[in-house]
Structure to design on (284 residues):
């Protein structure tokens, strides 16, 4: 699973990749500013955040001031240097949040978590907590309000889980059993006819008993029905087989009506009888 979470000023929380961390089958590997950090589920919240903020490359007030941009380096609320660590751990707004909620309480008390905890783990939600804390910091500056961090984080995590992540599919792949049974000996003739409101088409192919292609034919014809097209394809195919002196011929058609009428002497449709009589005339 990969995600691209855009922080303020298009700074990228580059990727969150769900793969086992070294030495911890349930770990979380985070690619941050081209550096790999290993975060285990056994780590505390503070340890996890310290592992990330040690790079201190977010566009905080302190960092912008440090690289020469004329801006106040202090936090709007606390009047302390606004470092990455301060935003995520030390600011009075977020400190209340962490002090009030243990990891397990965050997971069980959220209204969204009650319906999603069966499919989400802490490592799924943790990046979204960081994202919402960052948003909350900016909301405090511009709107002087606080966000509902737990529920917003879980809402985003659930949305990502079901709409963007590549979860394990529970569907079973069904491979259809399509087998062509070659004739015992001789040649197989497979015929097909098609028809729409304006024109028809015929095609057929000869194969030997090993399934190898011998010769094929296709053409557009003037017919009045798909049955007539199928029958015409068979007539042309039989005549070509006679010209090529092909014996021991096995015929395959997907027209049940044609297959039935060839051996039904009680057929009452005159047009069909005429077509089949032409066929037998070509054979004999």
């Amino acid at each position: 699973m990969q995600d691209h979470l855009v922080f303020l000023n298009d700074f990228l929380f580059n990727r969150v990749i769900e793969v086992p961390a070294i030495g911890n089958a349930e770990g979380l590997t985070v690619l941050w500013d081209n550096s790999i950090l290993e975060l285990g589920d056994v780590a505390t919240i503070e340890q996890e955040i310290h592992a990330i903020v040690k790079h201190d490359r977010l566009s905080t007030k302190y960092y912008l001031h440090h690289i020469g941009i004329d801006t106040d380096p202090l936090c709007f609320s606390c009047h302390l240097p606004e470092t990455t660590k301060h935003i995520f751990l030390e600011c009075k707004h977020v400190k209340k949040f962490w002090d009030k909620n243990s990891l397990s309480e965050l997971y069980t008390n959220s209204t969204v978590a009650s319906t999603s905890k069966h499919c989400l783990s802490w490592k799924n939600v943790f990046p979204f907590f960081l994202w919402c804390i960052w948003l909350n910091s900016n909301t405090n500056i511009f709107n002087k309000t606080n966000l509902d961090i737990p529920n917003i984080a879980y809402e985003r995590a659930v949305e990502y889980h079901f709409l963007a992540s590549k979860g394990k599919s529970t569907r079973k792949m069904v491979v259809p059993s399509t087998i062509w049974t070659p004739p015992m000996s001789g040649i197989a003739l497979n015929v097909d006819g098609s028809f729409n409101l304006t024109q028809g088409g015929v095609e057929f192919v000869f194969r030997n008993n090993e399934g190898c292609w011998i010769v094929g034919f296709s053409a557009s014809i003037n017919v009045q029905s798909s049955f007539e097209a199928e029958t015409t394809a068979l007539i042309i195919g039989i005549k070509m087989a006679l010209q090529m002196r092909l014996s021991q011929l096995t015929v395959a058609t997907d027209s049940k009506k044609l297959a039935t009428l060839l051996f039904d002497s009680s057929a009452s449709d005159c047009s069909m009888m005429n077509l089949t009589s032409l066929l037998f005339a070509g054979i004999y």
User: Anything to note?
Assistant: Residues 1-43, 110-117 have pLDDT under 50 and may be disordered.
